[in-house]
Amino acid sequence: MQMAYNLKNHSQIENTSEGCPDLSTIEQKLGHGYVTSTPEAGTMLGLLYEVGKKIGSITKLNKLVKQITQMTQSTLNATASSVLLFDEKEQELYFEVAEGESEKALRKIKLNAKSGIAGWVAQNKKPIIINDVMKDQRFDPSVDEITGFTTRSIICAPLLVQRKLIGVIEVLNKSDGSDFNGRDLETLTSVASTAAMAIENAQLHQTVLNAYKSTIKVLAAAIDAKDHYTRGHSQRVMEYTLMGAMPLSLPRDEMDVLEYAGILHDIGKIGIADSILSKDGQLTDREWEIMRQHPLIGSDMLKDIPFLEKARVLILHHHERYDGSGYPNGISGEDIPLGARLIAIADAFDTMTTDRAYRAALSVDRAIKELVRYSGTQFCPIALEAFISGYNNQQKSLDTGNGNYDLSEKD
Ligand SMILES: [Fe+2]
Questions:
Q1: How far apart (Å, rounded) are the C-alpha atoms in residues 269 and 314?
Q2: Which class in CATH covers the domain with range 4-202?
Q3: 266 alpha carbon – ligand 1 mean position (Å)
Q4: pLDDT by residue (tens digit) across 381-398?
Q5: pLDDT score recorded for residue 351
C-alpha cells in the first residue's frame, strides 16, 4: 500500500503503528550530566549531534554535502541519498553530491524545480514520504533512466533558511526493503534545518572565495602586463607548481595555498621600476639589488590579508636556493617551505621554456636537464622529483608520447 506523509498531516504520522519519536520522551537527567532516551530518539539525536559537530567547521560545499548525505544515509539505513541545491535564477534543482553508485551520472542532471517529487517538496517547502513511487504521479522516472538506479521509496525534506529555499535533501530505498516511517521523516527534517544553515554558510564562503580569486587574477595580470616577455608567466608558474605538487598528494587546502602563491609569486615586481624590469641589456649590480627586493615587496604588500598569509610566506621565499645561496634570507634545505621549493622549480622551468629578450626558449628536454643539473644546489631534489613525476604524469594523461624523464637526466 502506498504511504505518503507530509508534516502538514502530522497527526497521520503520529497515528502510525510505529509511533512517532517524541522528544518529550527523552528523559533529561539534568544535573547528573547524562541523557537517556528511547533508542529511536537516541538515533536521531546522535545524528543531529554528529551533523552539528562535523559540519560546523566545513566550509567547502561539496565536502559538507558529502558529510551530510553520508551520515543521513547510514543513520536511516538507506541505499542512496542526495542533496539537490536550488538555482533560483534558472528555477532548477541540481545534484551537488550524491552518495551511492549513481554519483557521476547525477552530477550532470538539472531538474525543473516545479516538477517531480523533489520539485513538489521545493515548491511546497514541506517534507514528504512516498513508499511506493510507482503509485505516485509526481514521480519522474527520468533520473532513474539516466542513472540506472531503481527508486522504490523516497523521503525528501526541503532545506530552508528562514523560509528561503536552499535546496532539498532526499533519501532513497531502505536497505532492508522496509518502508520509511514517520521517525525517519522527523530525523531527516531535523537534519535538514541544520544542514540548510551550514550549506548557506558554505555557499557564502564560496562566493567570497570566488571574489578573492578574481582579485588575485587581476593582480597577477597586472604583474605580467609590466613586461610582455612575462605574459602568462604567473598563470603558468601556478599551473606548473600544482602539477609538481600532484604526486605529493597534498591536502586540498595546501593545494589552494600553492595556487595563490604560484600565481602571485612575483607580485612584488609591481613595486620595481619599469626601467629595471624591462631593461634589454644586463642589469647593473645596483639594479640587481633592487630587483632582488621583489619577494620582500610582495610579502609586504600581502601582509594585511589573512586569507593569503600562508601564500605570503611562499612568495617571500620563492628565490631561496636549496644550498642557502638564494635570497632574501639565504635559508637552505628543509628550512625553505616545500611550497616555495616547488614554485622555484616551476618558475625556472617556465623562464627557460619561454622566449626572453636575451634568448629564445629552451626545449623541455634542455630545461629539465638544466633543472637536474642544479638538483641539490639550486633546487630541492625531492621537489624536483615530484615536478618531473608530475610532468610525466601530465604528458601521459595528454597522451603526447613525451614524459619519460627521471632525475638521472644529464647531458
Ligand atoms: Fe620572482
A1: 15
A2: alpha beta
A3: 5
A4: 999 999 999 999 998 887
A5: 93
Please provide the CATH number assigned to the domain covering 226-398: 1.10.3210.10
Closest CA to 306 of 400, 238, 163, 208: 208
Question: For residue 124, how many other CB atoms are within 10 A of its CB?
Answer: 12
Expressed in angstroms and rounded, the spacing between residue 350 Cα and the centre of ligand 1 is 12
For residue 394, give Cα distances in angstroms to 242, 257, 320, 401: 11, 21, 27, 11
CB 75, CB 40: distance < 8 Å: no
Contact 80, 149 (CB under 8 A): yes
Residue ranges with strand state E in 22-163? 27-29, 34-36, 78-87, 92-99, 110-112, 128-130, 154-161
Residues by chain with Cβ below 5 Å of ion ligand 1: 266
Give the tens place of pLDDT for each residue, 194-211: 889 888 888 888 888 788
C-beta separation of 89 from 170 below 8 A: no
**Domain locations along the chain:** 4-202, 226-398
Distance 396 CA to ligand 1 centre (A): 30
Q: How many angstroms separate the alpha carbon of residue 293 from the centre of ligand 1?
A: 9
Distance 231 CA to ligand 1 centre (A): 14
* Predicted TM-score of the model (pTM): 0.62
End-to-end CA distance of the chain, in Å?
78
Asked if 336 and 328 count as a contact pair (C-beta separation under 8 A), the reply is no
The 10 Å Cβ neighbour count of residue 399 is: 8
Q: How many CB atoms lie within 10 A of CB 175?
A: 12
- What residues act catalytically? 269
Q: Which residue has the cell 580569486?
A: 213
